[in-house]
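Appendix B: a complete holo record

For completeness, this appendix reproduces one full record from the ligand-bound portion of the collection. The bound molecule is flavin-adenine dinucleotide. The inputs are the chain sequence and the ligand SMILES; the output is the full three-dimensional arrangement of the complex, encoded as structure tokens. No fields have been trimmed.
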Amino acid sequence: MTERKRVDGKAAGGGVWIFCELESGVPHGVVPELIGKGRELADKSAASLSVVVFGHGLEAVGDGLARYPIDAVILADDPALDPYRPEPYAAVLVDLIAARRPDVVLAGATAVGREFMPRAAARIETGLTADCVDLDISPEGLLVQTCPSFGGNVMANIVCSVRRPQMVTVRHKVMRPAAADRMRGAAIECFDPAPESLRARTRRLEWLPETDGSGPHLADADIVVAGGRGMGGPEGFRLLERLARRLGGVVAATRPAVDEGWAPPTRQVGQTGRTVRPKLYFAFGISGAVHHLVGMSSSGRIAAVNKDPSAPIFSVADWGVAADAFEVIPAMLKELGE
Ligand SMILES: Cc1cc2nc3c(=O)[nH]c(=O)nc-3n(C[C@H](O)[C@H](O)[C@H](O)COP(=O)(O)OP(=O)(O)OC[C@H]3O[C@@H](n4cnc5c(N)ncnc54)[C@H](O)[C@@H]3O)c2cc1C
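The structure of the chain with flavin-adenine dinucleotide bound, as generated:
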């Protein structure tokens, strides 16, 4: 049976921690976003901000992270921590928490964060709120953890009032990223993991990056051309592909469009899909249900085309065109010189 570690609810004081996930040896895109929010939380509660990294050969990663607005980088450097495996990551995080008692631990709601953070939280018998879209500090000094609940119809504010640390996974692309600065120099500390914490019953055989073979990652795109049920079928999505190619963007879809097979599941935006924050988001034939809005409303600019002038999508759009997408898109393609 997995050993549980009791960490006294009152015995915190180790500040705010960010878990830094590495993707092919470099910090995942969610990490600067977590640092931006973590800095805000740490300042509000007069606490320190540390970034925790697990892996092997972490010197350059540590130096890079030290340029962010943080107070310390804590490196757990061991060959057994590269590549990622949930058992040692959870065990080493539990050891670190027991040794240094952070008040708050944030990680990205990525496949990695979603897998090992709850294991660590369960082992130390504290709470974890998954998939948060906002965080704040209450007047009582508690972490207010906001996440969509009840099918996305309400935003729940959750606090973990007794146990410590307060643990959270945060969606990628919902928070403003912190910038790295050449001049900064956070302290770099090392943590030697206990050999028994590095044991694992699994080994990684192969790494298959997530791709649907249709171009760049949705999360990385500056321009997203999204279509909904109003695009009528695969033909409509081919039109969106042509527009996306012209604009240097990536096609996305609502859940009904994915369910119909007009776009692959990796392209679904919304509560049960991806969160995106492109510079420009086009919404064609999308009504603007809350389940969709939660995945795209923090985009830089939103342009919506819908036949129905009362469609809710217009309430979040910077530009709205009440018209037929099958007239607007060909006109745009013509304008773009296709
Ligand atoms: C638990 C849960 C999770 C969910 N998760 C997600 C999610 O992750 N992502 C998601 O998207 N949805 C999700 N949904 C579904 C969501 O509630 C909506 O049903 C969905 O977003 C609606 O998709 P849509 O806008 O494509 O379709 P519709 O709501 O049917 O809207 C189609 C729109 O197209 C317009 N239109 C029709 N023809 C044209 C035309 N020729 N030109 C221009 N406009 C036209 C119509 O006026 C209409 O506004 C979830 C639902 C639940 C219950």
